[in-house]
Amino acid sequence: QVQLVESGGGLVQAGGSLRLSCAASGRTFGRYDTGWFRQVPGKERDFVAAINWSGGRTNYADSVKGRFTISRDNAKNTVNLQMDSLKPEDTAVYYCAADRENRNWYSNRGVNKYDYWGQGTQVTVSS
After folding, report:
1. What is the separation of C-alpha 78 from the centre of its chain, rounded to a whole number of angstroms?
2. Measured CA distances, 58 to 24, 79, 113 (Å)
3. Hey, which end of the chain has fewer CB within 10 Å, N or C?
4. Are 48 and 38 in contact (CB under 8 A)?
5. pLDDT tens, residue order, the chain (127 aa)
6. CA–CA dist 37, 22 (Å, integer)
7. Pick from 121, 47, 70, 57: which is nearest to 91 by CA?
8. CA distances (Å), origin 30, targets 46, 107, 126
9. Which residues are CB-contacts of 122 (< 8 A; sequence separation ≥ 6)?
10. DSSP letters along the chain, please?
11. Half-sphere exposure of 74 (CA within 13 A, CB side)
């Protein structure tokens, strides 16, 4: 079993930056593809970014490409999301997710790929 805990959320002005971290328990986390999703009330959980188990592959939603960067440190069991040039429309609860079976990488934008989810961290961007 893997537990994921997100941190780093908060309130920031438009144009600012935040760095989210996802800390995982369990020695096998470094073998799992990992993703970040976000959700606003009343809407579905949307894909933000994904990174494969080794860190050699990444993928981003078009809405964040060029502004957000996903990275991982398997020695520290963490996956990070650096968010720059934030916009009010980035406001959401951000969730970290991990795929214990490393299903098809090309399905990394779908929630069904992932088995473990964190509790989420709130990001609010003011205009």
Report:
1. 11
2. 19, 12, 15
3. N
4. yes
5. 889 999 999 999 999 999 999 999 977 888 899 999 999 999 999 999 999 999 999 999 999 999 999 999 999 999 999 999 999 999 999 999 999 988 888 889 999 999 999 999 999 999 9
6. 12
7. 121
8. 24, 19, 35
9. 9, 10, 92, 93, 94
10. ---EEEE--EEEETT--EEEEEEE-STTGGGSEEEEEEE-TTS--EEEEEE-TTSS-EEE-TTTTTTEEEEEETTTTEEEEEE-S--GGG-EEEEEEEETT---GGGTTSGGG-SEE---EEEEEE-
11. 15
Hey, what are 88's tokens? 């009010």
The residue written with tokens 């009330």 in the block is 41
Quote the tokens at residue 96. 């970290």
